[in-house]
Amino acid sequence: MAENAAVEIRDDRERGTLTAYEDGKAAGTIAYFVLEPAPGALVAVHTVVRPEHEGKGIAGALVRKFYALAAEAGGPVVPLCPYAAAWAQRHPDEAPAAPEELVREAERQLKDHPELF
User: The pTM is what?
Assistant: First the structure.
């Protein structure tokens, strides 16, 4: 499905959410955390789209924006979320692979701090 350009996407770094809004209502979210040190990798943990918004390309638009935010900040993305990881494999030109040591560190931090999920 083509990605929906009509959604508004807002980043709430303090809460660790990137949320897509359609017609002013939350349609989907990526939960994430920032891996330290700066510029820290953005670690995608979970992507959810509300059932009534599925099939509109919202999840893809969220992941694309997530990678763009990381690029703007000068850091990589670690896609621990299965959807984000699959999207990255389908879009290697937009989603450079994170170094393996960052992936291991992100997995360790998530395991040590399950509240990040």
Answer: 0.89
Beta bridge partners of 21: 8, 26
Q: What angle do CA 66, 14, 110 make, to 5 degrees?
A: 70
Distance separating alpha carbons of residues 43 and 116, to the nearest angstrom: 10
Residues 6+ apart with CB under 8 A from 9: 18, 19, 20, 21, 61, 62, 65
What residues form DSSP beta bridges with 40?
Answer: none
**Secondary structure E strands in the chain:** 8-12, 17-22, 25-34, 42-49, 77-79
Helix, strand, coil distribution of the chain in percent, nearest 5: 40, 25, 35
- pLDDT tens track, the chain, 117 positions: 444 447 899 999 999 999 999 989 999 999 999 987 766 899 999 999 999 999 999 999 999 999 999 999 888 999 999 999 999 999 999 999 999 999 999 999 888 877 766
